[in-house]
Amino acid sequence: MKKVITYGTYDLLHQGHINLLRRAKELGDWLIVGVTTDSFDLERGKMNTCNNVMERIEAVKATGYADQIIIEEYRGQKIDDIQKYGVDIFAIGSDWEGYFDYLKEYCEVVYLPRTQGISSTQLREGRPMVRIGVIGTGSIARRFVPESKFVNSNAIVTAFNPNIEECRTFCEEYGLEYSETEADLYERCDAVYVASPHYSHYSYVKNALNAGKHVLCETPFVFSKAQAEELYELSEKKRLVLMVALKTAFCPAFIHLVSLLKSGAVGEIVEVNASVTTLTDESSEKLNKDYFGGSMNENACFPLLPIFKLLGMEYENINFYSKMKNEVDMFTKAVFRFHSAVASFQVGLGVKTEGNLVVAGTKGYAYVPAPWWKTDYFELRYEDQNQNKKFFHSYAGDGLRYEIKDFVSAILSKEYFYSKVSKKENIKMAEVQEQYLRGESVYKL
Ligand code: C2G
Fold first, then answer.
1. CATH 3.90.1180.10 fits domain 3-121
2. Does this model's pTM top 0.85?
């Protein structure tokens, strides 16, 4: 029996794929089709697939040409598969001409003619597009616009900033339509990215939702439980997507770390400690009491994420210890007491610490080196060092493309969409910020 193997993503399966599969099948008696996993596609830079791996497998199955479907999840797997399944012919479209010649050592390699005039890319372009307006044109917005280009089905179309001069420069630089007022911006878009100074998030998010726009809000979301609840209620009433752009939550390595730890990889978790410190000029707006408001405001949501994901939100108390200057915290250490665990974090704009995340358990610990909040790598470590394991993931560009992809998918998906930071977690984060701002259990150093 002659075995043929071919691989692909098969996104929005079309006639080009069908022709390829038919031709591949005609080369032998048994056709194995390797369909790429979502994470492998992310790793090889394909951020723009519309169908998930199961939908793509179902589509390949429905063509009737595949005798066997396998998933392709890592680079180099083709060699392993050819040997494992005793493959005679590797077939692929002519757009890959020459690229897979290295497989000739293992089997016959055939480049089949590619069907002209049709591609997944073209089909994606014909799909609905989310027009995004940006509120606030500072440094994070400057990273957001280029990152959005890696995600399909969205276009940044306009920006607004009450500082007219800054806004004009930003719009010119990125080729966006300039919005003179907030109302103008809402006219021109379907969704809004709120990247304005922290204390203005609440009113912009509320206005955007009231204008019927989906919202992706930069961190920190808002500074009180009541505000967070109100905004979620409004988004639900209006059936709009409300997401917080807490980039760590969308980072592939972090997601894997959390699921490994939740499934017991270091035993029972007894301690979580995380630090985020960035030495900042004292005259910076970030250390201005009325503008951005200091270290807790700036960074607390990052360490709160692993603490809530790993230990839950039912802590018994929190104590904060803050080093103050000019009425803002240059540094804060927070200590959480849970029923059978403890957590702590350090955030600082005027004090530098090691910026790692350590999760200690009864069987071992997880170590994520600095900067853990945008990591592509972590380790599980045990008493017996032979058991230690290192994990590597992709973290493309500035990492904002992952949250943009989720935001756009949530808007376009007609069905249930899993939100990587839950409503409950975002509300609880706002509650912690509120407690801190009220000065409850805050000890000044
Ligand atoms: N194809 C084709 N004609 C088209 C479009 C695609 O013949 N108009 C072929 C491709 O050449 C490939 C297969 O259909 O053989 C699947 O294409 P994609 O889904 O784009 O997958 P691709 O990124 O080419 O992945 O490990 C994965 C492989 O490297 C191929």
1. no
2. yes
pLDDT interval class at 69 (50, 70, 90): very high
Block residue for tokens 């293992």: 106
Write out the DSSP string of 335-368: EEE-SS-EEEEEEESSS-----EEEEESS-EEEE
- Count Cα atoms within 13 angstroms, Cβ side, for 178: 13
Number of helices (H) and strands (E), helices first, in the chain? Answer: 15, 20
Task: Please state, rounded to an integer, the average pLDDT across all residues of the chain.
Answer: 95
Angle between helices 201-210 and 225-237 in degrees, nearest 10: 20
Element (H, E) at 108: strand 108-112
Question: What CATH number belongs to 128-246?
Answer: 3.40.50.720
Instruction: For residues 70 and 32, give the distance between their C-alpha atoms in angstroms, rounded to a whole number.
Output: 7
Calculate mean pLDDT across residues 189-216: 97
The domain locations on the chain are 3-121, 128-246, 252-394+414-444
- Residues within a 6 A CB radius of ligand 1: 7-11, 16-17, 20, 36, 72, 92-93, 95, 114-115, 118-120
> Domain 252-394+414-444, what fold?
Dihydrodipicolinate Reductase; domain 2 (3.30.360)
213 pLDDT band (50/70/90 cuts)?
very high
Encoded amino acid at 63, one letter = T
Gap from CA of 48 to ligand 1 centroid (Å): 15
Distance 151 CA to ligand 1 centre (A): 19
Ligand 1, atom 27: nearest CA belongs to which residue?
Answer: 8
The DSSP letter of residue 385 is G
Tell me whether the CATH fold assigned to 128-246 matches the one assigned to 252-394+414-444.
no
Nearest CA to ligand 1 atom 9: 93
CA of 411 to the centre of ligand 1 (A): 28
At residue 208, the pLDDT reads 98
Indicate which atom in ligand 1 lies nearest the CA of residue 114.
Answer: 7
* Protein residue closest via CA to atom 10 of ligand 1: 93
Q: Which atom of ligand 1 is nearest to the CA of 46?
A: 23
Token pair 């760590």 in the structure block, residue:
248
pLDDT band at residue 219 under the 50/70/90 scheme:
very high
pLDDT in tens, 299-346: 999 999 999 999 999 999 999 999 999 899 999 999 999 999 999 999
Distance between CA atoms of 345 and 331, rounded to whole angstroms? 11
